[in-house]
Amino acid sequence: MKLPLLKLFLILLAFLGFHASAYATPDLANGKKIDQQKCYACHAKKSGFGNGDMIYTRSDSKVKNLQNLKSMVAMCNTELRLDLFPEDEADVAAFLNKQFYKFK
User: Fold this and answer.
1) Burial tier of 61 (Cβ tally within 10 Å: 0-12, 13-18, 19+)
2) What does UniProt give as the signal peptide span (predicted)?
3) For a FRET experiment, which of 6, 20, 42, 56 has its CA 20 to 30 Å from that of 35?
4) Helix (H, G, I), strand (E, B), or coil: what is residue 82?
5) What sign for the dihedral angle of Cα 84, 86, 90, 96?
6) How many CA atoms lie within 13 A of 67 on its CB side?
7) What is the mean pLDDT of each run of 10 residues along the chain (104 residues)?
8) Going by C-beta distance under 8 Å and a sequence separation of 6 or more, which residues neighbour residue 50?
9) What is the pTM of this model?
């Protein structure tokens, strides 16, 4: 069964639009919001000092580069079942990088 050309074109556009969103510019405000809502309290508890930001600035940080930061955000999302979309993970990693890590 052949699809009309218009339907094929619309399917292709939908696919490309979805695929391109993974490469969109990160939304730092969304990353900050997610960090505050889903990350900060857990990190505050882990630090033992009630400050969730301390986990990002500690001297024995496990995060050594941008790819490692992205992997840690993805791991937290998976392990803790945070239900973040890939673009949300990218937003969080971009926010954390800008705020704390400053990787290029």
Assistant:
1) middle
2) 1-24
3) 20
4) coil
5) positive
6) 0
7) 64 57 82 96 88 90 95 96 96 98 94
8) 44
9) 0.76
Tokens of 19: 């695929």
As a whole number of Å, the CA-based R_g of the chain is: 18
63 class by beta-carbon count within 10 Å (0-12 exposed, 13-18 middle, 19+ buried): buried
Structure-token pair, residue 37: 């809502």
Q: How many Å separate Cα 74 from the centre of its chain?
A: 7
Residues in the chain, total: 104
Q: How far is 16 from 52, CA to CA, in rounded Å?
A: 38
